[in-house]
Amino acid sequence: MSIHDFGSAATRMVSQAARRVLPATFAALAAAIGPPPAGAADSKLVERGKYLVTIASCTDCHTPGHFLGKPDRTRHLGGSEVGFEVPGLGVFYGPNLTPDEATGLGRWSERDIVTAIRTGKRPDGRTLAPIMPWPALAELTELDARAIAAYLKNLPPVRNKVPGPFGPGEAPTSFVMKIVAPAKQ
Length: 185
Prior knowledge:
By secondary structure, this protein is mainly alpha-helical. Helices cover 41% and strands 6% of the residues. It has two domains: 1-34; 43-178, Cytochrome Bc1 Complex, Chain D, domain 2, CATH 1.10.760. It has six helices and three strands, in the order H-H-H-E-E-H-H-H-E. A three-stranded mixed sheet has the order 2-1-3, with no helix packed on it. The protein is globular, with a radius of gyration of 25 Å. The model is unreliable at 3-15 and 21-39 (pLDDT under 50).
């Protein structure tokens, strides 16, 4: 066996050993370090999401007190107590967009949020209320929709169950803004 053959054999042996040992080493290291903290996301993506939510005025319909002239900044995007009456469809309230498990988007994945933004479909298959401008938001890039989802998942959770929705003829339990059709001429 030549020196060259010996070197090639040694290289193959080291390579085979590395293929067996390195994955286990990396797995052990990952287990020791642990997963990233829940809700951790790329800070630039979250900042982009905050910017998009701000310029899209999501707070108008989704922050308590906004329609009453006194937005409750301690419950930012925590859902509205003022609904919209859409003739023939009922009354809809801007839901809680924070990651609260019981009253917000806490059980929704970022993918669920992106799908709702871009298709108007909730994870349970229902369509978003017609007042939600999802057809316009569907024009967002995939990255921008993901940024909004990352931002929403990184908000402090707010426990706030909004009223409704109420179908036609059902009595709403909180303030309502009515959409009134013009009189026929």
